[in-house]
């Protein structure tokens, strides 16, 4: 499954969620969003059906604690470090190139 570039843009690439968990593909995320739109839903959390269901029955502090753990830095070796999503890699390469060009133009 190819992840989107969400975690890089959120500056959350070192988190448990990104490095250790299975991520939804861009196609799954888009399908979930489209289906929610067609149903007139006001919000959608793609791929996190259990988290959404649990958040309606557990106390807020428990839900927040669970989410906090997922967003902590990963301490396990290995895991995902770069997106496999081709458009994300292309965007990243373009950004690096443009950043280098700007640095080279500075006096």
Describe this structure in words.
It is built from 6 helices and no strands. The protein has 107 residues and is mostly helical. It has one domain (6-105). The longest helix is centred in the last third of the chain and has 20 residues, at 86-105. The relative contact order is 0.19. The model has no long low-confidence stretch (mean pLDDT 82).
Could you tell me how far the N terminus lies from the C terminus, measured between alpha carbons in angstroms?
Answer: 44 Å
Low-confidence stretches: none
Largest sheet: none
Relative helix content: 55-70%
Our estimate of the beta-strand percent is under 5%
The overall strand count is: 0
Radius of gyration: 17 Å
Indicate the mean pLDDT: 82
The structure class reads mainly alpha
What is the string of SSEs from the N terminus onward? HHHHHH
Query: What general outline do the C-alpha atoms trace?
Result: globular
How many helices does DSSP assign?
6
Total domain units: 1
